[in-house]
Specification:
Residues 46-367 form the Adenosine deaminase domain. Its EC number is 3.5.4.4. Helix 11 (239-247) links the parallel strand 6 (232-233) and strand 7. With 374 residues, the chain is α/β, with parallel strands linked by helices. The longest helix has 19 residues, at 146-164. The chain has a single domain (34-372), classed as Metal-dependent hydrolases (TIM Barrel). The radius of gyration is 19 Å and the shape is globular. The protein contains 17 helices and 9 strands. It has helices at residues 11-15, 39-44, 60-68, 82-85, 91-102, 108-124, 136-140, 146-164, 179-193, 216-224, 239-247, 264-272, 281-286, 298-303, 322-333, 337-349, 355-372, and strands at residues 47-53, 127-134, 167-175, 198-204, 228-229, 232-233, 254-256, 277-279, 308-310. It has a 5-stranded parallel β-sheet, sandwiched between helices. The protein binds inosine (NOS).
């Protein structure tokens, strides 16, 4: 895989390129919902993304390019066949497909290129800050040395900040299905290899058959090392998983948290303690965690006073991108431009970004609303 520097937008080009939906194939974008009437406003709005997976952000072009190097792989080499490959019968099927793409990343150069290209797609959407969920275990167990992996992602992070006006940070997550050995490797990567951009410790993958409490010692150690706790919970199992994440893993933010809506006491707790949920509406439909967008509990969260941010999760795999998700949120919550700007400010405020980065981006949002709001 090679980077074509001539495709890299300059920082000033980002501001003026609101129509670019480069993170996914535009024909497929919005397979699960209509384009928003606010699409133009959203495209130029400076935003933060707090829940987005590293490999799950690989564009169809990168995925098919990688697949063509490994003819035996199940992943299609033709980008136009990817939409069908990325149609999931259920969450378990989604994870199986996700791991087949992870399998195509074989060396540190792949990691560096992938990370930089993901950053470039984000910058074209006017994302100014992103916490990318990275699973070092998946690469280390496929033979990429941990030190090389860290060097690759850090190199991409520093280049993105220099070239793309995008501040990147990492959440290292345990792929839950791989159990304690994966947790050990992830904790070692987070605490011994400790790259400068790392801000949080997470837990992803399936929830069924993967109880959160088994990872208590790993989260305790990560938190003692100064990392924030941001596990997935309540995406595919009920509210008890969210309680476990809060009470056992010390969660400061919850990935998805969708089924919290089933438990009024949990909603009150989240509101009282101002624990944000990282909501990814289209993802929940694509993995069939929620049956229909109309059934999505986003508006119930907001009504209960639970803080939320809007995120894209694995955008090309779900035929979406962050701008499209903001349009979906506007529809679900009945927002206008000023409400969309509030949503963008929430994304920044709930992030683990340095304070100066937060105030800079919030000021950019304020000024964008002043000049582009109705
Ligand atoms: O929506 C999601 N929920 C949970 N895990 C996910 C999701 N998207 C990507 N991953 C990724 O699945 C891998 C296998 O556990 C992990 O690397 C996790 O980051």
């Amino acid at each position: 895989m090679t980077v074509d520097p001539s495709n890299a937008p300059s920082a000033s080009a980002n501001v003026a390129a609101p129509q670019a939906y480069v993170a996914t194939s535009s024909a497929e974008l919005g397979r699960f919902s209509r384009p928003s009437k606010y699409a133009g406003f959203i495209a130029g709005l400076p935003k933060a993304e707090l829940h987005v997976h590293h490999v799950g952000s690989a564009s169809p072009r990168i995925v098919s390019e990688l697949a063509s190097r490994y003819p035996g792989a199940p992943v299609p080499t033709d980008p136009s066949k990817l939409a069908e490959y990325f149609t999931f019968s259920d969450f378990a099927h989604f994870i199986e497909v996700y791991l087949s793409v992870v399998d195509l990343i074989r060396d540190a150069e792949d990691v560096r290129t992938l990370t930089y290209e993901v950053a470039r797609d984000m910058a074209a959407l006017n994302i100014r800050y992103a916490e990318l969920t990275v699973s070092p275990y998946s690469s280390i167990r496929r033979g990429i040395p941990g030190e090389q992996f860290m060097e690759a992602i850090e190199d991409a992070r520093v280049s993105a900040e220099r070239d793309l006006d995008l501040v990147l940070r990492w959440c290292f997550d345990i792929p839950g299905e791989a159990g304690i050995p994966a947790a050990d490797v992830t904790l070692d990567a987070a605490t011994r290899l400790a790259p400068a951009g790392l801000v949080s410790f997470g837990l992803g993958g399936p929830e069924i058959g993967v109880p959160r409490p088994q990872f208590k010692a790993h989260f305790d150690a990560a938190r003692a090392a100064g990392l924030h706790s941001a596990p997935h919970a309540g995406e595919t199992t009920g509210p008890q998983t969210v309680w476990d994440a809060l009470q056992v893993l010390g969660a400061e933010r919850i990935g998805h948290g969708t089924t919290s809506a089933q438990d009024p006491a949990l909603l009150s707790y989240l509101a009282e303690h101002q624990i944000p949920l990282e909501v990814c509406p289209t993802s929940n439909i694509a993995t069939r965690a929620v049956a229909r967008l109309e059934d999505h509990p986003l508006s119930a969260f907001v009504a209960a006073g639970v803080p939320v941010s809007i995120n894209s999760d694995d955008p090309p795999m779900f035929s979406t991108d962050l701008n499209h998700e903001y349009g979906v949120a506007a529809e679900l919550l009945g927002l206008d431009e000023s409400g969309l700007a509030d949503l963008a400010r929430n994304g920044v405020r709930h992030s683990f970004a340095p304070d100066d980065v937060k105030s800079r981006i919030v000021a950019e949002i304020d000024s964008y609303l002043n000049t582009h709001g109705r």
